[in-house]
Amino acid sequence: MRSRLWSGYGHAVTDSTTFGRYELRELLAVGGMAEIFLARSRLGGIARTCVIKRILPEYSTSRPFVSMFIDEARITIGLEHEHVVKLLDFGQVDGAYFMAIEYVDGVDLVDILRAAKGLGAGVPPLAAAYIARCMAAGLEAAHICKDHRGQAMNIVHRDVSPHNVFISWLGAVKIGDFGIASARNKLHTTTVPGTIKGKYGYMSPEQTMASKVDPRADVWATGVVLWEMLVGGRLFATASPVDTISRVNEMTILPPSEQRAGIDPRLDAIVMEALRRPLTMRTQTAGAMAASLDAWIDGRFGAADLEALLPKLGLSRATYHAARVRGRATPSARPSGPSKERTGSVDPIDARLRGLHEEFREGQSLWTLVDIGERHAAIGQRPQALAAIRTAAAVFAHRGLLVQAVCAIHALRPLIDKSAFDVELSTLGRLRGHDRLRLVDHMATLEYQDFWRLVKEADPAGLGVEQTEQTLAHDVTPLLGAVNLNDFVRLARLSRIERKPQGSTLVREGERSDALYAVGRGRVVVATSSRDDDDVAGGVKGRVYVAALTEGDFFGEFSFLTQSPRSATVEAASDAILLRIDRTAVDELVSADSAFRQPLLEFYKDRVAELLLAKNPIIGALPQEARRGLIKNAQVQKFLDGEAIVKEGDSADELFFILNGEVEVHRDEGGIPVFINKLHEGQFFGEMAALHKKPRTATVWAMGTVEVLAVHREEIERILELAQDVRKLFERAILVRAAESEERVRETTRIFEGV
Question: Looking at the domain covering 496-605, what would its CATH class be?
Answer without folding.
Answer: mainly beta
